[in-house]
C-alpha cells in the first residue's frame, strides 16, 4: 500500500552500534525498508527568490537567512507579518512554518546542514530555526529544529533563533500538527486572529475521524495507513538499540500476522498530537502500555553510533547512544 502522510527520511546507509557502515539487508534498519513517501528527482524547483519543494508542494524562501539575525519567537512572527504587508517577492501568504513543515525539509542522510544533497537554498545557518508551533508541555516555549543534525526540541519564546518563511498549501502530504490554540510569549492562551501561529493557520492534511481503528493485528492509523502494535511496550525493560531491532524480529518469528518493523523516526513522529502532552498522543487513542522514549530504526548521521528516538511525553525528536539501554520498543507495519 502507498505510504500516506509521512515522508521517507532520506536515509540510505545502515550502521552498527559503533557507527560503522554495514550492509542493510536483513538489518531491520530504516534504509533497509525505505518506507514513506519517496522523494521526487529533482526535488526542488528554483523560482527566483523562492524554491518549490516537489515532495510537499510547499514554497520556501530561497534564503534561509532572510531576517539576517536570530529573533525572539514574537519578533519572528512579526517579521513574517511585515513580509505579507510588503508583499515580499510579490506574495502575501508567508508564514512561519509549523514543526511538521520545517521537518519536511530534513534529510537524515546528511549533516551540517541536514538538508537534501544538492539543495538550492542559500544562507543556511547550521543551528536552530523557529516553528510556529507552541510546545503543549510548556506553552511559554515553542518548537524549533536544528539544521546541523535535525533534532527537534523546544526553547523559550524569549530566546532568539533563526526564521525560515514558507507559503502555500502544498500537496496535502504533510499532516496538520493538531494544534488549534494560540499562546502568547508567557504561555497564556490568546486569540489566534492575526497571530500567525500554527493554531491560526492549521495548515496540512486534516486528520480522519476517528483517527484510529482497532483491527485483529493491531491499531490502524487511518491518517498514515500504518498499523501499530497495540502494546507500546515490547520489552520488559529499556533496551539497547540492537536489542530493539531484535525484539521486533522476534515478533515476526512468532508469526503475529504482520510484517513488523522498528519504525523510522518519521513514522514515530507521525503519531504526535501537538495539542497535548504526557503522552503527546491524540485524545482517545487505543494504545496500551505507553511509555516515554522510543527507539527508531533511523541512525543519526551526525554521530552514527547514535540513533533517533521519540520523546513521547514532550513530542520531541532526539537521539540516544545505541549501546545504552535507555529506550523502549514499539512495532509498526504497513497496512495491507
Automatic annotation (TrEMBL):
- Taxonomically, the superkingdom here is Bacteria
Domain Lcl C-terminal, residue spans: 51-167, 219-332
Pfam families, A to Z = Lcl_C
- Protein name (record): Lcl C-terminal domain-containing protein
InterPro entries documented for this protein: Lcl_C
Q: Organism, per UniProt?
A: Thiobacillus denitrificans
